[in-house]
Amino acid sequence: MGGFLTVKIKFFKMNGAGNDFIVIDNRENALKDFDISHFVRMVCRRGKSIGADGLMLLERSDSADFKMRYFNSDGSEGEMCGNGARCIARFANLMNVAKEHMRFETIAGIHEAVIVGEEVQIMFPDLKVNDFKLLQRHDFGFGPIEYHFGTVGVPHVVIFRGDVESMEDELLLNWGRKIRYALDVFPRGTNVNFVKVVGPSHIIVRTYERGVENETLACGTGSIASSIVSFLIHAVEPPVTVKVRGGELKVGFERCADEFKNVYLQGDARVVAEGYILPDAWKE
Ligand SMILES: N[C@@H](CCC[C@H](N)C(=O)O)C(=O)O
Fold first, then answer.
1. 213 marked as part of a ligand binding site
2. Disulfide: which of 17, 179, 180, 210 matches 218 by Cβ 3.0-4.6 Å?
3. Residue 4 CA, ligand 1 centroid: distance in Å
């Protein structure tokens, strides 16, 4: 029993609008002896282990308050995760690593975040209008469809459907997987968002996430991509309220000539548990 408890790693379980994460303070390099990708795959398994959409490490940074490293549940390291970023900002503030207004490093660049009571707002770098490829047509294996594409740190396809809320899970997964794995069209793979416009500033979004290979309850960068495409195609006005399966997110931006400036994502970011990851959590 003593051996069983010798290696234990402190973790926090968090979620932002239902997108859930394991968060580890790695400033002292607690995971130096681990194959991180394998460790992430093991501890993110639902049922057999803790379970999560992804895992984040908070690390030291020379140029900002801290560095965020984000891993999808399949062990792949992602450039950015909007909801993850909001969660790690809350975590950094709780751990006294950062004040309420903070800057942090990601693979996709430096981000700013601010704690707004129960919510966290994260700011994104400016996006170019021309980087959004609108009104594309392709047959992904279920007949030709119209889609839109844009990158918000990570790649996103946006598809408008009038039946988003009632769309069968199986259909969403089938479309999501076929599009995500259309590597001739998206060499790095892509996340896939199914979107319905329900008001002048309101949309509903469901997302199939690359790296989780499933629908998640929310996707932050997907909500931003969906809001901007909804603005470009359906004149949806920011700030946009995005209803996702796990709650609600707010997306703001301003169109200035050929750029989107002041892009932000806001919503809840909660710590729901803390404890120790024990060796059985990463056993095959
Ligand atoms: N959950 C996300 C996106 C995470 C990254 C993504 N799955 C990818 O690697 O493409 C979010 O909230 O933005």
1. no
2. 17
3. 34
pTM beyond cutoff 0.95: yes
Instruction: Kindly report whether the peptide bond that precedes residue 155 is cis, defined as omega within 30 degrees of 0.
Output: no
CA of 222 relative to ligand 1 center, distance in Å: 8
User: Which of 55, 80, 177, 186 has the most ligand 1 atoms within 8 A of CB, as the residue to mutate?
Assistant: 80
Superfamily of domain 3-123+270-282: Diaminopimelate Epimerase; Chain A, domain 1 (3.10.310.10)
| Superfamily (CATH H level) for 127-268 | Diaminopimelate Epimerase; Chain A, domain 1 (3.10.310.10)
DSSP classification of residue 141: S
Could you tell me the two tokens for 246? 């796990």
Q: Do the Cβ atoms of 197 and 203 come closer than 8 Å?
A: yes
Question: How far apart are alpha carbons 141 and 139 in whole angstroms?
Answer: 5
- List per-residue pLDDT tens for the chain, 284 residues long: 445 567 899 999 999 999 999 999 999 999 998 999 999 999 999 999 999 999 999 999 999 999 999 999 999 999 999 999 999 999 999 999 999 999 999 998 999 999 999 999 999 999 999 999 999 999 999 999 999 999 999 999 999 999 999 999 999 999 999 999 999 999 999 999 999 999 999 999 999 999 999 999 999 999 999 999 999 999 999 999 999 999 999 999 999 999 999 999 999 999 999 999 999 999 99
| Cβ pair 21, 272 in contact under 8 A | no
Ranges in the chain annotated CATH 3.10.310.10: 3-123+270-282, 127-268
